Amino acid sequence: MSDGNVTPPDGLWAPRWLLPPIAVFTAYGIARIFAVVWGIVRDGPPSSLLTGTDLVSDAAAAVQGVAVAVVLAVPRLRRPPLAWIVGLVAVGVAIAGATVWVLLGASDPPRRVRQLLLALALTILMLIICGFWPRWTAGTTGGIDLARVRRALNAWAWAAGASAVVGGLVIVTADPAGAVGRLAVLCLQLGGYSSFLAILTTLVVIGEQRRLIRDEGSRELYQHLTDHHRQRRDEPDR
Question: What is the pTM of this model?
Answer without folding.
Answer: 0.74
